[in-house]
Amino acid sequence: MKHRYLGNSGLKISEIAYGNWLTHGSQVENDAATACVHAALDAGITTFDTADVYANTVAESVLGEALAGQRRESLEIFTKVYWPTGPKGPNDVGLSRKHIMESINGSLQRLGTDYVDLYQAHRFDTETPLEETMQAFADVVRQGKALYIGVSEWTADQIRAGHALAKDLGVQLISNQPQYSMLWRVIEGEVVPTSAELGVSQIVWSPIAQGVLTGKYKPGEALPEGSRATDAKGGAQMIDRFMNDEVLGAVQQLTPVAAELDLSMAQLAVAWVLQNENVAAAIIGASRPEQVHENVAASGVTIPAELMARIDETLAAVAVTDARKTAENAPAGRPV
Q: Residues in domain NADP-dependent oxidoreductase (predicted)?
């Protein structure tokens, strides 16, 4: 397992991180979740990403229990705050000082740790002054409850404004966590150049496009039983944008590229995002330990320039590249 520096900091993280969105506390039983975490540890993954909203706080508890007994100093544990949690009262959402301060305490208790390595704003809060949010994050760092701060799915302008305030407050905003894959490339036009300028890394989620880039979904064929595209708990909704014959047909054309590199399609997808120098880590999820073992093989892979160009050409008609999509997909106000 290779490690990379996170942003302009001295913190190194595994270039493949384990995340438990849509799995722990909802899709898989706790024993299976623990087995996946232990498989990640065995594979050399040291970085684990979660959020308070995942399974309405249960995912944090499951991850904390799965990591119990591990040497804390050998791990990088990330979590996030923004979306509604708990009974979802008027202050159980957003990036107000009240919600941040209460949320970090709850997250630490559930994770069974005194601090997280990275505390992230899960979305931009349009209803709280950014100064209030960043002051609260700075205080969380000064209290020793988080070592660094990051954001998730912020626009380039939002990242720039947050980074400037963090710098004024003497804390380090070092990461952004966006969706990024061969099929969803909206960060490349604005977010990545701005982040590279500021010393901010990307920790990307959905590098396999919710499983579409594994090639298991084929145009004109029935959906595989038990796949994410059949999951009524939320997985099917997330994957729907890619479930059309044009996209699925283009993905099938990548099979020879993966074969040329002696990679599976999933490994190719994870390795592809790691070719971007601004990406510090690709987050993988798993419902079975063997999925972890397969995906970690993407660490350290170099894809030759000619094959990167072939991938671009193959997916040119179906990849989403519009930088405006980051803002368009952001909540206009606090969700309830």
A: 15-314
